[in-house]
Amino acid sequence: MNCSRSGVRLDKFLQLSRLVRRRTLANRLCQAGRVTLNGRPADPAAAVHPGDIVAVSLVTRRLRARVRSIPTGRAGQEDCVDVLEDRAPE
Length: 90
What we know:
This protein has helices at about 10-15, 25-30, 75-80, and strands at about 5, 10, 35, 40, 45-50, 55, 60-65, 70, 80-85. The chain has about 90 residues and is an alpha+beta fold. The strands form three sheets. It has a five-stranded antiparallel sheet with strand order 4-3-6-7-9. Strands 1-8 form a two-stranded antiparallel sheet. A two-stranded antiparallel sheet has the order 2-5. Helix 1 (about 10-15) crosses helix 2 (about 25-30). It is globular.
């Protein structure tokens, strides 16, 4: 597993964990208020640490995940996050 225990920028984490395909999309989602970190709207530069809860609202789904560790490379999603909820928006 290619993961670290230190923090990283939220937009970078979303890309590396494969919760979002591209970092620019992660950045836009954060700026639009569609990403929360521990229940609060987060900007793209917010630091993500193990144990944090990240929620992303996309057009077709809502995703909540607990950060297990910080990926240092393009790791598989299952290696670094525990998906808590993945459902279609209401």
